[in-house]
Structures are given as C-alpha cells and as structure tokens.
Amino acid sequence: MPWSTRLVTDVPIVETTFVGIVLKAELLEAVQSSLRLAMEHQTRYFLADCRALSGGHSVFDLYEIGESIDRGESRERLVEALLLPALPAAAENVQFWETLGLNRGHGLRVFTDRGEALAWLGDQARREVQGE
C-alpha cells in the first residue's frame, strides 16, 4: 500500500504518508481513512507527508476528491499542512491541492520542513482554542 495513516501529537493531528505512485483509487482510500480517523479523535488537523510521493494521479482526480470531501459528513473547515515532494510534477499536484482547499474555505499550507509544518498546525489549534 503506497500510503499509511496514523495519529500524532497532543493536538491531535492525523498524519498520512504517501510513497511512490499513488493512483486515484488509493488516494481516495487514504483520504477516507484519514477522515475516519479524524472523526474518531474529534480533530480537523492533518499532515500530508508527500515528500516521497512520485505521482500516479492527476489534478482532475484531486478535484474530484475535493468534491467528495465537500459532499461528506464533515462540514468543518479542515486544516492541513502539506510536505512537498521532490519531483516537480508531484509538487505541482500538491500545490494544486493547496489552492483547491483554500478556494473551498479550508486552511492548507505547503511546507518543506516537517517541524515547521507541525508547529504551524499546533499554532492553528491553539488559535482555535483561544477563539481567534
């Protein structure tokens, strides 16, 4: 399986790691698994580690998956940090996902450093608790 999902930190954050070629069906499965885990742990914070992602899906696939998320059970604004892959084409898809999410009212941000991504997610969670 070219992806794995786990819960990390005190926030909590659902982390999904992608490796190699991830086809549309696999990507959709990963998204659904991540959303289920988030619902179980009552969180809306996500970290997508795409550093080892090399492709396998298109921007059209990403658009369709974004549509399915918006039609899903959760109506909350999702907050996701995205770690960029090294390959330019895969990085473009991750940046498209960021733009797609921002246009839909979610909080997404691209990073190259895992520590910075986790710090940003923690800051977003603290702001929510403080009502900012």
Polypeptide structure, described:
- It is built from four helices and five strands; from the N terminus they run E-E-H-E-H-E-H-E-H.
- By secondary structure, it is an alpha/beta fold.
- It starts with a strand and ends with a helix.
Give the topology, please.
Layout: E1 3-8, E2 13-21, H1 24-40, E3 45-55, H2 59-71, E4 79-83, H3 88-103, E5 107-111, H4 114-129
Helix pairs in contact: 1-2, 2-3
How many strands? 5
What's the overall geometry? globular
Strand order of the largest sheet: 1-2-3-4-5
Major sheet summary line: 5 strands, mixed
Distance between the termini: 39 Å
Low-confidence stretches: none
Helix and strand content put the structural class at alpha/beta
- Note the total helix count: 4
Helix content: 40-55%
**Helix-strand pattern, N to C?**
EEHEHEHEH
Round the mean pLDDT to the nearest integer and report it. Answer: 91
Any idea what the radius of gyration is? 14 Å
Strand content: 25-35%
Write out key terms for the chains shown:
132 residues, alpha/beta, 4 helices, 5 strands, 47% helix, globular
A few lines on this structure:
This protein has 132 residues and is an alpha/beta fold. It contains 4 helices and 5 strands.
